[in-house]
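User: Here's a structure from my thesis project, written as structure tokens. My advisor, Dr. K., wants to see whether a designed sequence matches the one we expressed. Can you design one independently, without my sequence as a hint?
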């Protein structure tokens, strides 16, 4: 009988953030020591649950270890990283010989002393299981990837969509490939191409990325090609393996894998300027909000989005709303457990001066003092994500100040759906402007509600202007710091796509 070992261990480390990734971050995100079955459906629990269910349907024996996934912050402390890693490795050793290992990792975890946690984990897993056991890994496309991981794994499948709506589809695909590999039907060969690019490349905005994804999927239907993945990279980490990579997996044909990785890697390189997300200055964004008299516009406070490891409690944008006299607005989330506790003591309907935000770390910037009414309170809340899934956001307080409804949460979070506001008593349709601490993940779900969306280059840790960050360890040359690192801009296309 086939025996499979399944574990989840992920986060994304912003190495410019001073707040270290802690055990609490994992426990607040996803933490299952007794199997994934009873975990709340979420983007972090989905893949392992799917693998477990499919393995049982296939009459495999399942050994589960820890499933841990954290909202992002800075570099993970060495103690926390090693404790979780070693728990998974001990469980693997204790489960005895297995045929396959399936790991859901994020791909951009940096811990003290470890620039590439995923390579460290998978290298150790390989040492335990030996060369013949098959290792399959699923990664977020905002990860770091180099040859070490490719050498130690047999199958790597990466999300194709940003916003990430395909984590379960990719998990399904990885399971299929693993099942076929174990059955001896296929013999996966992987190849990686370094695109020498850093940036943000959403796959649903107008431009070349939707077609790039379609082209990858179309090519996967060709003979011999098992899987194609673009690892976009995570720009706010100063590590030697930063940047985008193209990964190809073929059936038994290393040469074809090399060829496909180069072909799609160069294709992505050629579209990099048009594929990269564009940003609006804060002054311009506030002027647009002031002038707006129609449907709401959405402003994304991109630099303080917790999804990239930022604190999630800077007040620059909401302060700008107040100073510009914008009424009929909402803004959130701002992380502030202490202010929320004060709100719970006072109760709904109370009016008070309150100091909010600016607490998480030195780069949180100044707090904001407001004369506000407490209009909504809820303990232990969550927001829906992608239909059936839920993301915990902790305790919630909604404050109203000069026509602006501000949402505070006790867990650092992004906005995953309009329900983040509407579940907490806020109407969106009557607003001039909706402000969210997000980068891009809200875009498609808010499109029907708003007339336009702008990605605003606010101050903060997930600064879109990468030239403002002090990188010391990233590889060079790399775009956008070097204009044409592959020396292809003036060369004729040779890839034929
Ligand atoms: Zn991501």
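Assistant: Designed independently from the structure alone:
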């Amino acid at each position: 009988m086939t025996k499979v070992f399944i574990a989840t261990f992920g986060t994304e480390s912003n190495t410019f953030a001073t707040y270290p990734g802690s055990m609490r971050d994992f426990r607040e995100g996803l933490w299952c020591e007794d199997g994934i079955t009873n975990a709340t459906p979420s983007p972090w629990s989905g893949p392992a649950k799917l693998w477990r269910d499919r393995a049982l349907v296939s009459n495999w024996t399942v050994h589960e270890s820890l499933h841990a996934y954290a909202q992002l912050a800075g570099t993970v402390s060495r103690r926390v990283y090693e404790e979780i890693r070693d728990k998974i490795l001990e469980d693997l050793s204790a489960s005895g010989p297995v045929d396959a290992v399936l790991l859901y990792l994020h791909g951009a975890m940096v811990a003290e002393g470890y620039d590439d946690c995923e390579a460290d984990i998978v290298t150790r897993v390989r040492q335990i299981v030996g060369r013949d056991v098959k290792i399959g890994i699923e990664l977020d496309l905002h990860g770091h990837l180099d040859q070490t991981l490719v050498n130690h794994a047999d199958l790597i499948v990466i999300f194709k969509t940003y916003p990430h709506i395909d984590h379960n589809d990719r998990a399904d695909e990885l399971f299929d490939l693993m099942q076929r590999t174990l059955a001896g039907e296929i013999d996966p060969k992987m190849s990686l191409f370094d695109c020498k690019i850093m940036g943000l490349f959403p796959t649903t905005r107008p431009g070349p990325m939707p077609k790039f994804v379609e082209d990858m999927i179309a090519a996967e239907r060709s003979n011999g090609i098992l899987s194609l993945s673009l690892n976009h990279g995570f720009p706010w980490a100063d590590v030697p393996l930063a940047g985008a990579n193209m990964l190809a997996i073929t059936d038994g044909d290393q040469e074809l894998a090399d060829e496909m990785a180069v072909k799609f890697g160069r294709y992505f390189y050629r579209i990099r300027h048009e594929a990269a997300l564009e940003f609006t200055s804060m002054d311009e964004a506030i002027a647009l909000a002031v002038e707006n008299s129609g449907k709401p516009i959405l402003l994304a406070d991109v630099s303080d989005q917790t999804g990239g490891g930022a604190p999630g409690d800077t007040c620059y944008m909401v302060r700008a709303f107040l100073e510009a006299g914008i009424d009929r607005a909402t803004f959130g989330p701002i992380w502030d457990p202490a202010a929320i506790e004060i709100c719970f003591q006072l109760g709904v309907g109370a009016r008070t001066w309150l100091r909010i935000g600016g607490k998480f770390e030195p780069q949180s910037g100044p707090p904001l003092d407001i004369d506000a009414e407490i209009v909504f309170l809820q303990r232990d809340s969550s927001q829906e994500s992608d239909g059936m899934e839920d993301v915990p956001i902790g305790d919630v307080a909604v404050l109203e100040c000069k026509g602006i409804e501000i949402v505070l949460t006790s867990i650092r979070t992004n906005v995953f759906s309009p329900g983040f506001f509407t579940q907490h008593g806020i109407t969106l349709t009557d607003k001039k402007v909706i402000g969210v601490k997000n980068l891009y993940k809200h875009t498609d779900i808010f499109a029907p509600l708003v007339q336009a969306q702008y990605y605003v280059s606010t101050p903060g840790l997930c600064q879109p202007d990468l030239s403002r960050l002090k990188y010391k360890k990233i590889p060079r040359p790399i775009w956008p710091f070097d204009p044409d690192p592959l020396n292809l801009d003036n060369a004729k296309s040779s890839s034929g796509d």
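When you compare it with your expressed construct, this may help: The first strand starts at residue 3 and ends at 10.
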